């Protein structure tokens, strides 16, 4: 598979994930009717090269972000170690 095809597929997959998130949030708002006040939790990961910087509001969010950081580090290592001709 050509490298440009892989890049195009990654962009399309990213757009589909964003759309799935939008539809999921819209469905949840429609289902609850906007009456309940949701508990706000959040977290994030900043990847500087292969090194993650984690932040979050509670332990549950940090656990999820840690798993995400590990997955991103593995994907980055695989992309670095795989030869370009394999893609």
Overview features:
87 residues, 2 strands, 2 domains, 2 helices, two-stranded antiparallel ribbon
Structure in a nutshell:
This protein is α+β, with helices and mostly antiparallel strands. The chain has helices spanning 3-32, 59-81, and strands at residues 43-48, 51-56. It has a two-stranded antiparallel sheet.
Topology readout:
Blueprint lengths: L2 H30 L10 E6 L2 E6 L2 H23 L6
Residue-averaged pLDDT, rounded? Answer: 84
| Portion in strands | 5-15%
By DSSP (H or I, 4+ residues per run), the number of helices equals 2
Tell me the Rg in angstroms.
Answer: 17 Å
Give the count of structural domains. 2
- What structural class do you assign from the helix and strand content? alpha+beta
Low-confidence stretches: none
Q: What is the element string, with H for helices and E for strands?
A: HEEH
Largest sheet, strands/sense/barrel: 2 strands, antiparallel
Query: In which order are the strands of the major sheet placed?
Result: 1-2
Helix content: 55-70%
Ends apart, CA distance between termini? 6 Å
Number of strands: 2
Shape type: flat
Protein model, in words:
This protein is an alpha+beta fold and 87 residues long. It has two domains: 1-38; 39-87. 61% of the residues lie in helices and 14% in strands. The protein contains two helices and two strands. The chain has helices at 3-32, 59-81; strands at residues 43-48, 51-56. A two-stranded antiparallel ribbon has the order 1-2. The protein is flat, with a radius of gyration of 17 Å. The N and C termini lie close together (6 Å). The model has no long low-confidence stretch (mean pLDDT 84).
């Amino acid at each position: 598979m050509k490298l440009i095809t892989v890049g195009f597929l990654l962009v399309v997959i990213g757009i589909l994930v964003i759309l799935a998130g939008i539809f999921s949030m819209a469905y949840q708002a429609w289902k609850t009717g906007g009456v309940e006040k949701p508990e706000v939790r959040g977290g994030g990961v900043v990847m500087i090269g292969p090194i993650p910087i984690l932040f979050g509001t509670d332990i549950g969010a940090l656990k999820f972000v840690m798993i995400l950081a590990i997955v991103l580090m593995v994907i980055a290592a695989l992309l670095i170690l795989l030869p370009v001709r394999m893609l």
